[in-house]
Amino acid sequence: TSSFLCSLVLIFYFIFEFFLMILLPVVSGIHLEGPFISEEKRGAHPSKFLRTFKAGGVANLMETYGYLDNVAMVTLAPELANSAAAIRELSGRGIAVSLGHSMADLSQAEEAVQHGATFITHLFNAMLPFHHRDPGIVGLLTSDRVPPGRTVYYGMIADGIHTHPAALRIAHRAHPAGLVLVTDAVMAMGLPPGRHTLGQQQIDIQGLHAYVAGLRHVLSAFSVFGEIHYGCCFVDFIVLDDTLTLRETYIAGQQVWRK
Ligand SMILES: [Zn+2]
């Protein structure tokens, strides 16, 4: 890992500023997943913290987040009413808007991109599945309504559990320039099998999977993939050879390691 973009989920918002103080020295920026996301596609995010956009633009956002300095990315669901103003406001501040935890159809996703969204959060997970009549957010990978010269990036959890390798290949072959690999390793990584507490939730760990206790959706797989970062945002990248052995590491455009 060259540098981290740390994702915070809703269970942390009540101690958000505390986390900013702890994390800022070691991460490149904060990724806020939510709370403006879809109830149906909330995944591990507790329902009681979800919000909808009021027509207040930035005042509405600040009321929720309190603090946007050092926030590098916000994930939101573009089908929520008044999302366009929020997308424009966040993009205008240099914060990447990512689409995810969403029921959006393709035209809603395309509109969000036209307003400034540039990213898709964990493609395929927590969104409508690809359908040939309306491919949903996934359709952005081949959309002809993305403004010329713009690249829509998409994060994928390439652990063979969140996404089938064939689906990863479909995405990569359709839109190789946009692929960003993401770990999705949660705080539970490294804990033994059994029941544990993550934030305010109980989770069950079985083998390489973590589940929200009592539910069957995968919270996280403990990635064995290794390398992962939001390189598009901070110009951090690594060079791998054909056997996926690390050859070079760059942070903020500088080579910091070489084999
Ligand atoms: Zn998520």
UniProtKB/TrEMBL annotation:
Its EC number is 3.5.1.25. Keywords: Carbohydrate metabolism, Hydrolase, Membrane, Metal-binding, Transmembrane, Transmembrane helix. It is an enzyme of class 3 (hydrolase). The chain crosses the membrane at residues 12-32. Its cofactor is a divalent metal cation. InterPro entries: Metal_Hydrolase. One of its GO terms (molecular function) is N-acetylglucosamine-6-phosphate deacetylase activity. It catalyses: N-acetyl-D-glucosamine 6-phosphate + H2O = D-glucosamine 6-phosphate + acetate. The keyword RNA-binding does not apply. The keyword Hydrolase applies. Pathway: Amino-sugar metabolism; N-acetylneuraminate degradation. GO terms for biological process: N-acetylglucosamine catabolic process; N-acetylneuraminate catabolic process; negative regulation of UDP-N-acetylglucosamine biosynthetic process. It comes from the Eukaryota. Belongs to the metallo-dependent hydrolases superfamily. NagA family. PANTHER family: N-ACETYLGLUCOSAMINE-6-PHOSPHATE DEACETYLASE. This is N-acetylglucosamine-6-phosphate deacetylase. The gene is amdhd2.
